[in-house]
């Protein structure tokens, strides 16, 4: 999954931040969807890689995500922003979501509950 996130990060459209990000989600049905961030000059219309990947899964009929890998060549331990954490929470599997990021000596796996404690939702 992290390799897929690395590949798709190369498609990022990030002329303003110069911060490309790729994401790869794994659904409860064991399907994989990728997404990259794309920016807009108004900045508020920018879409994060994580939400792009989740949107692709949702468009294909998926509703439960069990893992996501996130990668940026500009930063190790690239975790989702608050908005993406809330979106992930909306579509988490009954067992939660593992969040996989790269660190200097390999991979680090968080749970969404660790990164978004006391969340709200359905």
CATH homologous superfamily - what is it?
Cytidine Deaminase, domain 2
- What structural category do the secondary elements indicate? alpha+beta
The largest pleated sheet is described as: 5 strands, mixed
Order of strands across the main sheet: 2-1-3-4-5
- List low-confidence stretches: none
pLDDT averaged residue by residue: 96
Helical fraction: 25-40%
Could you characterize the architecture of this molecule?
- The protein is α+β, with helices and mostly antiparallel strands.
- It has one domain: Cytidine Deaminase, domain 2.
- The chain contains four helices and five strands; from the N terminus they run H-E-E-H-E-H-E-E-H.
- A five-stranded mixed β-sheet has the order 2-1-3-4-5.
- The model has no long low-confidence stretch (mean pLDDT 96).
Please write out the topology.
Layout: H1 2-9, E1 22-27, E2 32-36, H2 49-59, E3 65-71, H3 82-90, E4 98-103, E5 106-111, H4 112-115
Parallel strand pairs: 3-4
Antiparallel strand pairs: 1-2, 1-3, 4-5
């Amino acid at each position: 999954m992290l390799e897929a996130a690395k590949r798709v990060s190369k498609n990022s459209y990030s002329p303003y931040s110069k911060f490309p990000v790729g994401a790869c989600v794994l659904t409860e049905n064991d399907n994989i969807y990728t997404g990259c961030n794309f920016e807009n000059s108004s900045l508020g219309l920018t879409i994060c890689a994580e939400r792009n990947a989740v949107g692709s899964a949702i468009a294909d009929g998926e509703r439960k995500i069990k893992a996501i890998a996130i990668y940026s060549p500009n930063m190790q331990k690239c975790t989702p922003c608050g908005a993406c954490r809330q979106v992930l929470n909306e579509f988490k599997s009954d067992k939660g979501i593992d969040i996989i990021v790269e660190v200097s000596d390999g991979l680090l796996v968080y749970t969404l509950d660790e990164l978004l404690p006391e969340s709200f939702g359905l």
